[in-house]
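Q: Joint fold for the lines below.
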Amino acid sequence: MANKHVNAIVVGAGAGGGVVAKELSEAGLTVVLFERGRWQDYEDHDHDELISQRITALGNAFGPDNERYRRVAQRGDKWVTVPPNEWAYNNNAACMGGGTLSYGAMAWRFMPQDFRMKSTYGELAGSTLADWPLTYEDLEPYYEKAEWEIGVSGDDSQNPFAPPRRKPQPMPPFPFNTEGRVLKAAALRLGYHPFPLPMLRNSVSYGGRPKCRRCRHCVGFACAVNAKCGTQNTVIPQALATGNCEVRTQSVVAEILFDDRGRATGVAYFDAQDQGQIQTADLVVVAGSATESARLLLNSKHRLFPQGAGNNHDWVGRNLQGHAYTGAYGLFPEVMYDDIGAGATVGLCDFNHGNEGLKGGGMLANEFIRLPYLFTDRRPPGSARWGLAHKDFQRRQFKHLTSVKGPVQEMPVFDARVEIDPVVKDHWGIPVARLSGSRHEHDVEIGHFLADKAEQLLKEAGATQTWKAPPGMGLSGGQHQAGTCRMGDDPATSVTNRYGQLHEIDNLFVADGSLHVTNGGFNPVLTIMALGYWVSDYIKKEWQSSRLRS
Amino acid sequence: MNRTGSGIRLSRRDFLAGAGLGTGMLLMGWGCAQRSAAQPWQVLTDPEARLLEAMTEQIIPADQDPGARDAGCIHFIDRQLAGFYRTHVETYRQGLIGVDQTSQVLYGKDFLACAWDEQTEVMKRLESGQAQGAIWQEISSRQFFNLVRDHTMQAFYGSPRHGGNRHYVSYRMLGLDYPQIVGQNRYRDI
Ligand SMILES: Cc1cc2nc3c(=O)[nH]c(=O)nc-3n(C[C@H](O)[C@H](O)[C@H](O)COP(=O)(O)OP(=O)(O)OC[C@H]3O[C@@H](n4cnc5c(N)ncnc54)[C@H](O)[C@@H]3O)c2cc1C
Ligand code: SF4
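A: Joint structure:
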């Protein structure tokens, strides 16, 4: 039986897609929200470190699975097929909520300069560095909406580098743990400006959900008490409550369909029983995260755009970014581990911008709790990798190690990209994404600068042995993947306009990390959520003026 | 420490090897369940398992705290080879032959017949990628070593539900209270 026609299809129930589904269904549009994963919660993998979204030794806890999914990655001069639990797959997640079910939940607003990187720093050879087609001021109300509707704890008034805001964060910040207290004092002695990290976790009960129990297992896990705020326990249930939104889980969208004139008419997808189906709609919003959104557009071809939707200028899949993580470790004589989760409590933005000779920078924060298996590779250079010495380090230092880390704002690179592999297909026969390219060397330069700062902070805090962990040149993406469907004013150098609408197809939108022109020196999710609201607002206005109705 | 490979704690504590070792069972504490005398391995042969177990013990030796053998790391590996790590079965089969080849070249005897320090030396050769033995012309001894090393670490420091870390030995060693139970310990209000 044919599926009933709806107003809007949203592909992907993650950070961006969850917000769009709620906004459109509340505005009265009928919506089908497609998600290839399923509803998952704490019970699925509880506190199993080996099957989490941070350590994937025995698989991804929250998808995708190794049986049905594949990507192709570049290794030297070879193409290799990689399963989702391997690093080179560049995974985020595949479940209701996408990355937001199991994330670390840091809730950053980008700074005004992050939207104007080219104006601030000029050209950079080998990079497609550009300004966003919108400003921080444009996005500010939408950040606020994300903070209040999904739930953020924090206090930006303690961060002198925080961008201006109309309203405070809705929940008070979490108190510092031991690491936070020690590092804060040290940062103040060095003249820096430490503050409690903003978090998409309930510091008090909020949104009908309880307050956080500060457990050991947060990043990479679903919350046992539902205190972590994702789209799966906020905006998506709200979308469902309107009665206008249907969620179709375990449904993999294979292709966007078009009419003769090249307007989107719906999607072809495989349902939970692997049956091919069609869903028609007046408009389609793609929010599958940076790799999968690009793959879907590239797999959706038409006489008018034979290289894939939105790809007549060859920008879809380009500029894949993530974050070059950098930082340092320190061993302390005192016990630093207090078992108070999620662990990361203190941050500073002293080095996001204004660093002599560098184009940008990144925030620094103490790390989330390191679980026992993860800790087995946390060693100073030259340490034993096995044997009694390794075991003894594990035993003596587990509670004495502290780490300060941060995400380098990367310089976009045109050749860091997602393409369609000509050979390899997934379980459903859909051609898979192929990843290639590498970071810009300037990212590594910034990484070394920030690692120095992190090490200096740890020393000031009393670490007796320290070592740095600067990034390498490998391809970026992963959990913070972004940039593959860049927004811009010029159709020749971007995929969508400033509202996430494809330049060439007026009823096809993107609303996820793919839109990011640059990815900030911050974890990206709050910006993705804000963009979800921003894109939705535009769609609602266009809908009112009936331009989008078919 | 100079112990012979075969002399390391011959009297292993028996335990429940099968799947579905639930939390309730674990809460009963140390050594409470009996393994059936039947073949305990899903993939490995008995000689393979004994050799591999000796390697895991080299990677995480017992001292004042239990080592890989006490923690049942071999059971983790065997079980994963029947499941998530099934693509590694051939590498293990070949690699274990290679380990004996290397110890034969170095000491004229099999790995299990070697003294503790001799075994350690074999492990170092494997790790360096310079191990001698015909098998290592086909596969890299370093990659095989890393595989066993990583799997042993996962077995020892991961969740007991996968067959290793029996009785939470590694969490006890690190001083972490486990399991975390909603309403108790870490889940109290703070
Ligand atoms: C362990 C972990 C920790 C993290 N910590 C933080 C943090 O502290 N702070 C922060 O800002 N960010 C963090 N992130 C990153 C954050 O989760 C992502 O930036 C964010 O979720 C990306 O949003 P998105 O909408 O682009 O994609 P996603 O949230 O990944 O959502 C995309 C969804 O689309 C679905 N999908 C894709 N293709 C299809 C298709 N063809 N058909 C049907 N469904 C499809 C996917 O299954 C997925 O559920 C973390 C991520 C992880 C995994
Ligand atoms: S730290 Fe808090 S929000 Fe995170 S999983 Fe634990 S209880 Fe949930």
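Q: Anything notable?
A: The mean pLDDT of chain A is 97. Chain A touches chain B at residues 47-50, 57-59, 66, 211, 213-217, 224-225, 339-341, 372-373, 375-376, 385-388, 390-392, 394-395, 398-399 (CB under 8 Å).
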